[in-house]
Design brief:
The protein is of the alpha+beta class and about 325 residues long. It folds into 2 domains: about 1-170, Thiolase/Chalcone synthase (Peroxisomal Thiolase, Chain A, domain 1); about 175-305, Thiolase/Chalcone synthase (Peroxisomal Thiolase, Chain A, domain 1). It contains 9 helices and 13 strands. It has a 9-stranded mixed sheet, sandwiched between helices. The protein has a two-stranded antiparallel ribbon with strand order 2-3. α3 (about 50-65) crosses α4 and α6 packs across α7. The radius of gyration is 19 Å and the shape is globular.
Length: about 325
């Protein structure tokens, strides 16, 4: 069984406050207050750091933590959200990072079509590859993104983007077992980022979050009350409070520190929140969830429990 052995991340070096940024961008005070209500306080902005530098550092950190030599890695999957977080053809981030980190034997590919949920789709692809290649023992999923134009920094009133890279080390029989993985693409048409750089908010957003989480719980065979921690994407804190209320989950189980400390580091929120919450070393059932522009949703249970749930038959 494939599981998560460790995670690592690298934030761009320059830390900025949302308040100062809004002032510099001449945004109205009510916009700042709306962002504050959704937990946004700080973000990280890349200055001289490029994608290769950020990604290479994240890979090196996770391999060192997992005591895996570069030439022992079997697979490398690169994920990103922005189409600008890529290299011009004929180059690829997967190939460039493979060379930069000396991953001589790693099968390298990219999964980028599912925005901030791409890394969860990468889990499914790697599960299939691990089943096919019985000799494989370890793989790394790298997620990296930077904002090129500052007027795309905000996510409407729901949050603020951070520039970062992250890495997830997967190994056979690792302690962080991945259960109940579910992904969903909303078939309803959405505007996405509009010409004024605002985001069109779907009236179905909260209900879709709840519905996909219920699918994850059902697939994993656990009830909402069995969850030890909720690890969300760091966007729209107010919506997450509605989600918890809908599922009757106590609010103290929501890991929300990184809404203010980090901001939304695109698909890297997954690895960052696993690392900072200490979920891998805390026995229990941890819901990991992400959603992305264009109606992409996904989640799974990070199972570090030493005993089964008390009432596995009570699924939502």
């Amino acid at each position: 069984m494939m599981g998560i052995a460790s995670t690592a991340y690298v934030l761009a070096k320059t830390s900025c406050t949302v308040s100062e940024w809004c002032t510099a961008q001449a945004l109205a005070e009510d916009r700042l207050q709306a962002l504050s209500r959704n937990g946004a306080a700080r973000f990280h902005r890349a200055q001289e750091e490029g994608l290769i530098a950020l990604g290479s550092e994240a890979i090196s950190k996770v391999l060192e933590t997992g005591a895996v030599a570069a030439d022992e890695l079997d697979a490398l999957v690169i994920c990103h959200t922005s189409p600008l977080s890529a290299l011009p053809m004929p180059y690829t981030l997967a190939g460039a990072l493979r060379r930069a980190c000396g991953l001589a034997h790693a099968y390298a590919l990219g999964i980028t079509q599912q925005q901030c949920v791409s890394s969860l789709h990468a889990l499914r692809v790697l599960d299939a590859l691990f089943t096919r290649h019985r000799a494989w023992r370890s793989a790394v999923i790298v997620t990296l993104d930077t904002i090129i134009r500052e007027n795309y920094r905000l996510i409407g009133d729901s949050g603020v983007h951070s520039d970062a890279a992250s890495a997830v080390l997967l190994q056979r029989n690792a302690p962080g077992r991945v259960h109940g993985l579910q992904t969903y693409n909303d078939p309803r048409a959405v505007q996405g980022v509009m010409p004024d750089t605002l985001y069109g908010t779907s009236p179905h957003y909260v209900w879709t979050l709840v519905s996909v989480i219920r699918r994850v719980l059902r697939a994993a065979g656990i009830a909402p009350g069995d969850l030890s921690t909720i690890l969300p994407h760091n966007v729209n804190l107010q919506a997450w409070h509605q989600v918890l209320a809908s599922l009757a989950i106590p609010e103290e189980r929501l890991f929300h520190d990184n809404f203010a400390r980090v901001g939304h580091a695109f698909g890297s929120d997954v690895a960052i929140n696993i690392a900072d919450s200490g979920a891998l070393s805390s026995p229990g059932y941890h819901l990991v969830f992400s959603s992305g522009i264009g109606g992409c949703f996904g989640g799974f249970i990070l199972n570090t429990a030493t005993t089964p749930p008390l009432h596995p038959e009570k699924t939502p």
